[in-house]
Amino acid sequence: MTNRIIATLIVATSIASMALSRTLVPSTRDVEFLVADSISTQVETDSTTSAATQQLPPFDENAVTLRSFNKRVADNYETFFVQNNTQFTLAGITLLLRYTDINGTLLHERTMHIPCELLPGRSRQVSINSFDRQHLFYYYLSGKPRKSATAFKVSARLIGYDISILRP
After folding, report:
1. Is there a single domain that holds both residue 40 and residue 69?
2. Less CB within 10 Å around the terminal CB: N or C of the chain?
3. What is the DSSP code string of the chain?
4. Residue 164 bridge partners (DSSP)
5. Residues 75, 155: one domain?
6. Judgement on whether residues 108 and 160 belong to the same structural domain of the protein
7. Are residues 103 and 152 both part of a single domain?
């Protein structure tokens, strides 16, 4: 009986010590945190910001090319290809999309941020949720559907793009 109590105590102690030593967030190792006074930190931040601003390229409206837009009447998504015309890797683009009927009457307008990792000079297909939730519209170059639906045209304007800076 005594051996059983001792064994139980040993197991309980082991479990308790494992629970105490276990952390949900792993401890940080080999990282040195530098503490500086607030004045030098502010000066470093300001000089870093101005240096970074000087190195940023100006906005280029031709930085991205969109092509091969597609949306059939039954589709939940609109798909198209995005081509990166910059020398930088892009992490995302922001577009203003305008949807009009064939006569040019505005149907819908929205601004969309589209995350997409895109190397310089490369293109990729992206999909976004369609503005047409009720399946009443189709892109006029996607082919006429069998059921009754309204054709639309779309125009896009590049509002912004995210440049990805990767560690060498």
Report:
1. no
2. C
3. -HHHHHHHHHHHHHHHHHHHH--SSPPP-S-------HHHHHHHHHHHHHHHHHHSPPP-TTSEEEEEEE--TT-SEEEEEEEE-SSSEEEEEEEEEEEEETT--EEEEEEEEEEEEE-TT-EEEEEEE-S-TTS-EEETTS---SS--EEEEEEEEEEEEEEE----
4. 89
5. yes
6. yes
7. yes
Would you give per-residue pLDDT tens digits along the chain (168 residues)? 555 555 454 544 554 444 444 444 444 344 444 444 444 444 444 555 555 555 778 889 999 999 999 999 999 999 999 999 999 999 999 999 999 999 999 999 999 999 999 999 999 999 999 999 999 999 999 988 999 999 999 999 999 999 988 777
Q: Are residues 39 and 120 in the same domain?
A: no
Q: What pTM was estimated for this model as a whole? A: 0.66
Domain holding 121: CATH number? Answer: 2.60.40
CA distance 38 to 133: 53
Cα 21 vs. chain centroid, distance in angstroms? 38
Q: Beta-carbon neighbour count of residue 119 at 10 Å?
A: 12
Residues 115 and 96 in one domain: yes
